């Protein structure tokens, strides 16, 4: 039965733990997406699609792409405060991009981070994930208003 009352502390704790688990899953997906194709061809030499699809079979590629959009939205939906929704939804991108930039600057140079095309791409990714978290948070409040009305 769906309870429409104020969530209990236990319920909030479960939602918070679920959001953290989704953050970890999203971070792992992003890390695999940002890993260079050469890494996957070295780690998975028997796979013909490793350079294109990474560690995922080609049949799962659409699911992985969908998860990259759905998970930040779901994370935002699970948060009561919009600030937390934006932070939690974009946290995997912050962490993954940070690791990627550290690895890239060790090979390319210290100014890789501030080159205009990379700054634009990185900010766009962060904005996308924050926006998806915000959409999830708005969805939560629209759903709550619809349920109470």
TrEMBL record:
Transmembrane segments: 20-39, 59-79, 91-113, 119-139
Entry keyword Transmembrane: yes
Key words, A-Z: Membrane, Transmembrane, Transmembrane helix
Keyword Transmembrane helix: yes
Protein name, as recorded: Uncharacterized protein
Organism: Thermogemmatispora aurantia
């Amino acid at each position: 039965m769906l309870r429409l009352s104020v969530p209990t502390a236990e319920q909030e704790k479960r939602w918070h733990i679920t959001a953290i688990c989704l953050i970890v899953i999203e971070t792992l997906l992003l890390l695999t997406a940002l890993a260079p194709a050469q890494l996957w061809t070295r780690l998975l030499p028997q796979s013909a699609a490793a350079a294109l699809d990474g560690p995922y079979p080609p049949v799962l590629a659409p699911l992985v792409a969908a998860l990259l959009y759905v998970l930040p939205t779901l994370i935002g939906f699970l948060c009561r405060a919009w600030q937390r929704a934006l932070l939690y939804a974009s946290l995997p991108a912050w962490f993954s991009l940070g690791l990627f930039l550290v690895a890239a600057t060790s090979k390319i140079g210290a100014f890789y981070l501030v080159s205009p095309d990379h700054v634009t791409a990185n900010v766009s990714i962060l904005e996308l994930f924050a926006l998806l978290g915000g959409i999830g948070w708005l969805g939560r409040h629209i759903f709550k208003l619809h349920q109470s009305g």
